[in-house]
Amino acid sequence: MVERLTIDHVGHRGDGVCLDAGETVYVPYTLGGETVEVDHVAGHHPDRRKLLAVDIASPERIAPFCPHFGICGGCAIQHWASEAYRAWKRGIVVETLTQAGIACEVAPLVDAHGAGRRRVTLHGRFGTHDVLKVGFSAANSHDVVPIDRCPILDPALGGALDAAWAISEPLTSRMPVTKPLDIQITATANGLDVDVRGSGPLPTPLVTALSRVAEQHRLARLTRHGELVLQRLPPTVRMGRAEVTLPPGSFLQATVAGEETLAALVAERIGKAKAVLDLFCGVGPFALRLAEKAHVTAYDNDAGAIDALLKAARTPGLKPIKAEPRDLFRRPLVPPELRDFDAVVFDPPRQGAQAQALKLAASKVPVVIAVSCNVATFARDARLLIDGGYRIERVIPVDQFRHTPHVEVVAKFTR
Question: Is 373 a catalytic residue?
């Protein structure tokens, strides 16, 4: 059923929001003030509509730069002028903190897109008539949208799409058409690091075929569900003075600029602290840089990441780094373990660090630096620290995931 709606504003997920006769309706790819024609979305989405046409456009609407925008499910916003987009993204942080009862200054949005995304997950699947499709999932769908280029990727991923097509062809030919192949590709100093998921075991003829693909497309390493299939060169990235060999499938900030920006903001807020604790440390993007001036102790539940960090910590010129695996959700560090540190940094996954924040709130650590990729869980954890006696300084929003509703934040808490 075709409807004509007027969009009120852009919501926190990047969709236009229509407040129609007491009903809230979401329309992707629309802007506040626009009058649009929409249709209902099939399936279990009674509050969502599909955009058919923009009858009256916002003066802030611009032409998207990617031909796949609105078809592939990667970017939510390419159609909004930069100044308005940046104000909206900062506003997500302001509104979320206000709703949590947290009064503090929110700095201007810091752009950290840099050269673009250095990692990407592509999907491969044979569709109808045995036609191979390699690309991204369509918005709100499991359909694969085949793509030949993606302008938000770092040039270092320039060969990623061709490599994904070459990997998909021999693997998807033996898979059910209902099951997609997932191909995670990361740009490293020695070539592309690829991890495939969903392929099933790889018999020798397939490994031989993939070895030819690896040579042709200069892959550094190929793993399946994190298990080594072949390696031409170790996949390494630089973090400060150190060179880190990535564990298969390990977490890495999406852009080089994002990692460097977050690390610089953390270091600035750490100041002259001599003993620093890095929680949810990953492979060490903060720890390895902070160790240029401070003694660092680091924890993460990923044993492979900790092993990679310890090897990189041998870099000459770094102060000692102690690191060990620990599940900080089930075994957060408690106040007696925290008492010898001048500062604590924590950068948890999207679910936040509620258990650890409670222990930090009960500690006497002078400075806590929180980094988060989820403003809602950041606000929850920040509330715990504030209620425990910490004072929050201004919050810095960081736009690493440009063209999406995702925003990261960095904030300093002091006793």
Answer: yes
